[in-house]
């Protein structure tokens, strides 16, 4: 590889040699010089609009945004002159003058990029106060709340929705002071083409976008002695929850999490990873059926409710490609309210099933039709990773010092295959582990399918299984999903099996995960760290193939008969509908 | 499709036919009646005038008289204007019902219609157009054909050297020679910023790409400016021709003109010009067998001032919200669909053909050291001769306002003039002798701008004026960057407070601080210049701001909230007219004794003052 | 969503829109041209047209809405039968056009951007219509009234009221 050209620049008197193509902001950060940013979101929103990251460049009139200005030979840059500090204070003052400033009651209190800057720049009163735009809060959807009174128009959400996900549920409407982030016709997010992936929430530096709160209902149920409150936790939650308590990104805190959940008062704490094992059993069987009986191929995974909502809205004709399997937590909920309720002799009507998910679309998923396998809703409430962290904080639990405990029996032990569901390629890998052994009819040594791991947008692999040529593809992020769907639509896809996740990177980067600041997102590979956490759980697992999960085997033996049975279909499968993009 | 030789024939033949338009001594029995069909005169029913003239001509069986629609003559204040050539008789404020008389008296009887002749400001009666002071100091280059030819007739354009510059470029000049000529002419962008045009052409030529574009910025957004519109309405072919020359010079074969949809006549005439040029084979493939292809398309704006900013304009052509892009990269390297793009405004293009035909030296001999050629201004506001004027650079503001514009009406005094519209600044009387060029105007806190020149008399409040401009920028800010989106709004609110008598000590300093930060920190030209009207009025009329804030008085008496009406008991005769006029019953008094106004009831509408026969009521 | 607009002959609206769309290539850069034509045709840009355009150009409807609300020429509501537009360009402003606007608001009892309850009148404040020589100017639909005064607009509106 050829050496990149180096550019000589001076920042605040420091002479630096910087790789060509770097921005002034990146160069400054390399030299440990801090420049504040607000609208900047690496690779997604590089527009230089908020004017916080402005710097002075010798020989130039006015200020230049450092987040997009590339370094040029001989550039002499000043980043923190008194004039710049005044300009940034004025900019902050102006933003705050049109912000509702209800910090105490904001979900982002303490994790707000605007608040941090206001504190840093010592904005203690608003010099240029004036009329504020006032908006009705949009909380019609089951998943997401949009509160424009807090919006600072950085447009990170708009860029994410349009460029990363290519959905375009939101755009900017009006102009000038009246500009606002808006859906088509300013309708509720519930009534437009929003998939509830929640990536916009992850992008928001303030509290203008957030999940619909479920902590209150969960607290209420926990108070109610008559209710049997059961919780399950998704694989990706355990490698991110710790971040909310200052722990390293990607740390596996499953043990502490289980302890915390028990302390919060949940009657039982289960692992959704077991649900994932069920999913592999069902989905693997469905795939083999399709393969053998000339069914509709490629078959596409259905674990990601954002993705399912997307295809229902955008490619309804291709719905037969989607596996009829419910997602792991729905399957698990159905089993709890049927098999488990029977076994433990509990009235399923009294069971309140809570899922802790890295996802906000799951909040929508539980409201879907055909999601009540046992005659009761499979799942009653979904908490995001963030909401669980809030509950733990409210309960005054010192999370980092909690002892570890294990998930409750009889579903205690899940496989490593279930764990890797939380990252892109994980469902595919888990499925391949099982499908290949079933098709070959023997135990295989190949456990890891590294072809489907990693950060590439779309991963493809050609596999030889039982003498069959099997082509698979894995896509995460809806823009990539769109590419695959176009291939299928145009008859250019020769895959048999496709995994799609709505969020780029899979569930570890879900819309319900801890929100990382723009600076962390620019400097740390969050996805990789969280994914590594999951792969390491997999490696250390006693069982790494779903079909070897003892609990799963037992339940099939005792209750479900076999994967794909009538009973299994009743409980673990669902159906899809064509969905209007715009209801107005 | 016409061969070059055919174009030459048309030129020769048509030129003879039209000689009487420009040669006032032409020996001919023919008469051409020129009627302005610019937007202003069209609004005052000039199409009807044409109809009536033709009717009367027919009734009188006059065979040697033709009625021709033309573009703007410039003196809009006297519109609708009818000119009869070759004698150059000038009839002002003509109504459709005057037409029969014009035809009968002037054309049949050979006498002047005295009552339709206009009087110059000094009272002298003007019979001929060239006698008007309005025209004496003007030099028409960009507007050369406006008011002379029928803009909808390509042959008339060809007659007056139309498409001759293009021919010269394609046949005799290399792209480099063209760019060199433009560079040496000293022409600078007439859209406002004044960037050297030749340089812009060179940068775009140097950019490497198979696909380049030529764009004409006709999104004339400055409220009160209408030079670009008048050029498109009066001489659309000169823009077509210049864009083609630019295309040949930089290596582009596709052009777009971005016009405000609010200019229907200009759009329609330009489309007609494109159609005619295509029909003649002037636009299209392999033009005159030179291998050069060029075609043009119109793109309509939809009412956003910011689209006059070149990168916002590009966004708009691409079908998006007109939000400016960050520069660099400049359009010369990455413009329309990221391809190298040359953007010039209408007036800039309107100079090109003349520079090519007459040479760089000729052009650069006009104007000042740094600003060459002429500049067209839309003269408006409190000035007698409202209209379109073209003057050599270096002409002073005083000459424009007083010699050409005829001074201030109603016996009022000149207070200030605003150039550069919402981006510019006001120029007070003390700077009336500033020669108009890019640098001089910048030095005194204003700017050339696109050419709006609004004159204000002493009844105008400068704080209110600043508020007006800020209101405009707040409405027109795209909303992309923080300083402009929120900052201009906060400036407007401060100004509103001040004009409502709620200003506080320190507000001026607050305004200045905000203004300077908005200027330095905004993304595009709109935000960077939006505070100019405030800063320049503070600079020259700070005492007026202070009067509003400290004394709660508006010295010009324009700010309603600060007005307090009172009746001078010495002048009041007790006639009771004011009492009847008052809509809220704030005035009381017995007949024949002095009346009084109750300030707690008065809504400051001013109805009483305007009706008092004894001028006893003052603010 | 029903593919029709609220205030006009519904079935026809769809057909008309298709007719407009068919003139343009499916290229996003045609959006503003199409919207100009739709605005001209319907007097506003109906929701159904926004949806139709978004489908035709294969772009999110939110983006179409973003463009519609950016440009002042496009409106989301139909204007009155008589649209009273008072020019607030600088030349007219300096000549007192604000007083004319105030008078119109007073007479019609509505604000800028509003339509009277009977749908007869709407008021618009425009930026320079280019008739600066006639300043101050107002227009009612296509009719231009120059050198206007509050008294003139009062008289003219009275005439229109009786139309």
Short description:
The complex is a heterotrimer of chains A (584), B (619) and C (163). By secondary structure, chain A is an alpha/beta fold. Chain A is built from 19 helices and 17 strands.
Verbal overview:
- The complex is a heterotrimer of chains A (584), B (619) and C (163).
- Chain A is an alpha/beta fold and 584 residues long.
- Chain A is built from 19 helices and 17 strands.
- In chain A, α8 (272-292) crosses α10 and α8 packs across α14 (426-440).
- Chain A is globular and about 75 Å long.
- The model of chain B has no long low-confidence stretch (mean pLDDT 94).
- Chain B folds into 5 domains: 12-132, Glutaredoxin; 154-364, Rossmann fold; 374-457, Ubiquitin-like (UB roll) (Roll), CATH 3.10.20; 462-550, de novo design (two linked rop proteins), CATH 1.20.1440.230; 564-618, Alpha-Beta Plaits, CATH 3.30.70.20.
- In chain C, α1 runs antiparallel to α2 (31-42) and α6 (97-108) packs parallel to α7.
- The interface between A and B is medium-sized, with 31 and 31 residues.
Largest sheet: spatial strand order of chain C:
2-1-3-4
* Tally of helical segments of chain A: 19
The largest pleated sheet of chain C is described as: 4 strands, mixed
* Main interface: chain pair and counts: B-C, 47 and 37 residues
CATH topology of the largest domain in chain C: Glutaredoxin
Number of discrete domains of chain A? 3
């Amino acid at each position: 590889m050829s050496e990149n050209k180096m550019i000589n620049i001076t920042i605040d008197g420091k002479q630096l040699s910087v790789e060509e193509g770097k921005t002034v902001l990146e160069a400054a950060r390399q030299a440990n010089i801090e420049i504040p940013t607000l609208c900047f979101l690496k690779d997604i929103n590089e527009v230089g609009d908020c004017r916080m990251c402005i710097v002075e460049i010798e020989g130039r009139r006015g200020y230049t945004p450092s987040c997009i200005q590339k370094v040029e030979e001989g550039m002499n840059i000043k980043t923190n002159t008194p004039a710049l500090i005044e300009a940034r204070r004025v900019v902050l003052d102006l933003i705050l003058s049109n912000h509702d400033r209800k910090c105490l009651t904001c979900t982002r209190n303490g994790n707000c990029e605007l608040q941090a800057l206001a504190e840093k720049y010592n904005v203690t009163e608003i010099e240029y106060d004036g009329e504020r735009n006032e908006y009705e809060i949009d909380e019609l959807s089951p998943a997401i709340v949009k509160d424009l009174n807090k919006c600072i128009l950085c447009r990170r959400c708009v860029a994410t929705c349009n460029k990363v996900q290519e959905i375009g549920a939101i755009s900017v409407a009006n102009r000038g002071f009246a500009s606002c982030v808006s859906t088509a016709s300013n309708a509720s997010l519930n009534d437009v083409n929003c998939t509830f992936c929640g990536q916009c929430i992850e992008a928001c530096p303030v509290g203008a976008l957030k999940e619909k709160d479920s902590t209150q209902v969960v607290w209420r149920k926990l108070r109610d002695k008559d209710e049997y409150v059961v919780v399950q936790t998704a694989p990706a939650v355990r490698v991110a929850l710790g971040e909310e308590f200052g722990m390293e990104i990607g740390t596996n805190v499953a043990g502490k999490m289980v302890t915390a959940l028990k302390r919060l008062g949940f009657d039982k704490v289960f692992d959704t990873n077991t649900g994932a094992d069920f999913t592999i059993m069902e989905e693997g069987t469905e795939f083999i059926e399709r393969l053998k009986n000339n069914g509709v191929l490629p078959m596409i995974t259905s674990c990601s409710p954002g993705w399912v909502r997307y295809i229902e809205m955008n490619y309804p004709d291709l719905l037969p490609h989607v596996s009829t399997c419910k997602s792991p937590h729905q399957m698990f909920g159905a089993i709890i309210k049927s098999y488990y309720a029977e076994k433990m002799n509990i009235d399923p009507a009294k069971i309140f099933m809570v899922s802790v998910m890295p996802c906000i679309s799951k909040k929508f998923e539980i409201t879907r039709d055909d999601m009540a396998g046992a005659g009761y809703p499979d799942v009653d409430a979904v908490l995001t990773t963030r909401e669980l962290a809030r509950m733990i904080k409210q309960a005054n639990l010192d999370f980092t010092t909690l002892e570890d405990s294990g998930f409750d029996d009889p579903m205690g032990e899940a496989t490593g295959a279930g764990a890797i569901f939380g990252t892109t390629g994980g469902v595919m890998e888990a499925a391949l582990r099982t499908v290949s052994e079933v098709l070959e009819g023997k135990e295989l040594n190949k456990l890891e399918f590294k072809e489907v791991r990693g950060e590439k947008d779309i991963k493809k692999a050609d596999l030889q299984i039982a003498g069959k040529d099997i082509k698979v593809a894995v896509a995460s992020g809806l823009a990539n999903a769109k590419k695959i769907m176009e291939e299928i639509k145009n008859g250019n896809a020769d895959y048999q099996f496709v995994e799609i996740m709505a969020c780029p990177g899979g569930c570890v980067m879900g819309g319900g995960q801890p929100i990382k600041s723009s600076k962390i997102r620019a400097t740390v590979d969050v996805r990789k760290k969280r994914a590594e956490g999951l792969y390491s759980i997999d490696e250390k697992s006693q069982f790494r193939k779903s079909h070897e999960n003892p609990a799963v085997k037992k339940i099939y033996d005792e209750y479900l008969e076999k994967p794909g049975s009538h009973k299994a279909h009743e409980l673990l499968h669902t159906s899809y509908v064509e969905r209007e993009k715009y209801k107005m | 499709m016409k061969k070059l030789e055919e174009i030459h024939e048309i030129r020769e033949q048509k030129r003879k036919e039209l000689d009487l338009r420009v040669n006032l001594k032409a020996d001919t029995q023919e008469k051409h009646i020129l009627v302005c069909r610019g937007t202003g005169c069209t609004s005052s029913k000039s199409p009807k005038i044409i109809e009536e003239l033709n009717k009367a001509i027919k009734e009188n069986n006059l065979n040697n008289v033709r009625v021709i629609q033309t573009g703007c003559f410039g003196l809009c204040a006297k519109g609708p204007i009818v000119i009869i050539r070759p004698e150059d008789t000038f009839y002002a404020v003509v109504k459709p019902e005057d037409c029969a008389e014009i035809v009968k008296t002037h054309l049949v009887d050979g006498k002047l219609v005295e009552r339709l002749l206009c009087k110059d400001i000094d009272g002298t009666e003007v019979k001929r157009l060239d006698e008007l002071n309005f025209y004496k100091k003007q030099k028409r280059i960009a507007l050369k054909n406006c008011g002379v030819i029928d803009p909808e007739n390509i042959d008339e354009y060809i007659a007056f050297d139309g498409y001759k510059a293009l021919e010269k470029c394609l046949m005799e000049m290399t792209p480099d020679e063209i760019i060199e000529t433009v560079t040496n002419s000293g022409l600078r962008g007439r859209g406002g910023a004044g960037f050297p045009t030749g340089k812009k052409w060179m940068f775009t030529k140097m950019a490497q790409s198979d696909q380049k574009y030529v764009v004409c910025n006709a999104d004339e957004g400055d409220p009160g400016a209408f030079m670009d519109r008048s050029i498109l309405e009066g001489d659309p072919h000169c823009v077509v021709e210049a864009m083609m020359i630019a295309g040949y010079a930089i290596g582009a074969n596709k052009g777009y003109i971005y016009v405000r949809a609010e200019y229907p006549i200009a759009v329609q005439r330009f489309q007609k010009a494109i159609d005619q040029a295509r029909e003649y084979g002037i636009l299209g493939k392999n033009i005159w067998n030179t291998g050069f292809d060029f075609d043009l398309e119109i793109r309509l704006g939809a009412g956003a001032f910011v689209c006059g900013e070149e990168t916002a304009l590009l966004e708009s052509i691409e079908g998006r919200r007109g939000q400016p892009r960050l520069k660099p990269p400049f359009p010369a390297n990455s413009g329309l669909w990221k391809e190298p793009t040359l953007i010039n405004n209408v007036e800039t293009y309107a100079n090109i053909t003349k520079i090519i035909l007459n040479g760089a030296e000729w052009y650069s001999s006009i104007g000042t050291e740094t600003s060459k050629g002429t500049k067209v201004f839309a003269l408006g506001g409190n000035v007698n001769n409202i209209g379109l004027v073209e003057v050599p650079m270096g002409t002073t503001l005083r000459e424009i306002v007083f010699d050409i514009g005829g001074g201030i009406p109603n016996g009022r005094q000149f207070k200030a003039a605003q150039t550069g519209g919402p981006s510019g600044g006001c120029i007070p009387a003390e700077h009336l002798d500033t020669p108009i060029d890019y640098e001089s105007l910048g030095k005194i806190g204003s700017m050339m701008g696109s050419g709006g020149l609004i004159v204000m008399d002493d009844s105008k409040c400068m704080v209110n004026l600043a508020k007006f401009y800020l209101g405009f920028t707040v409405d027109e800010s795209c909303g992309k960057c923080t300083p402009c989106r929120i900052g201009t709004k906060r400036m407007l609110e401060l100004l509103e407070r001040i004009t409502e008598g709620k200003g506080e000590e320190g507000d001026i300093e607050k305004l200045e601080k905000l203004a300077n930060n908005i200027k330095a920190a905004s993304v595009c030209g709109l935000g960077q210049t939006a505070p100019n009207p405030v800063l320049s009025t503070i600079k020259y009329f700070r005492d007026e701001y202070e009067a509003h804030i400290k004394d709660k008085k508006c010295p010009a008496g324009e700010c309603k909230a600060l007005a307090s009406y009172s009746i001078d008991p010495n002048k009041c005769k007790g006639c009771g007219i004011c009492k009847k006029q008052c809509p809220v019953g704030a005035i009381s008094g017995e007949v024949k004794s002095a009346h009084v106004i109750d300030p707690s009831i008065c809504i400051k509408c001013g109805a009483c003052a305007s009706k008092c026969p004894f001028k006893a009521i003052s603010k | 969503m029903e593919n029709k607009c609220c205030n006009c002959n519904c079935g026809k609206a769809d057909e008309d829109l298709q007719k407009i769309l068919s003139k343009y290539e499916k290229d996003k850069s045609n959006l503003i041209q199409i919207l100009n034509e739709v605005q001209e045709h319907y007097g506003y840009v109906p929701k159904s047209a926004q949806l139709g355009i978004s489908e035709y150009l294969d772009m999110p409807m939110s983006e179409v809405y973003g463009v519609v609300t950016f440009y002042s020429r496009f409106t989301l509501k139909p204007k009155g039968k008589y649209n009273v537009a008072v020019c607030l360009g600088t030349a007219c402003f300096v000549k007192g056009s604000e007083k004319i606007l105030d008078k119109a608001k007073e007479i019609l009892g509505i604000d800028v951007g509003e339509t009277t309850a009977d749908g007869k009148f709407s008021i618009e404040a425009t930026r320079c219509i280019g008739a600066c020589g006639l300043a101050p100017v107002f227009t009612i639909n296509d009719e231009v009234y120059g050198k206007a005064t509050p008294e003139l607009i009062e008289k003219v509106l009275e005439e229109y009221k009786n139309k």
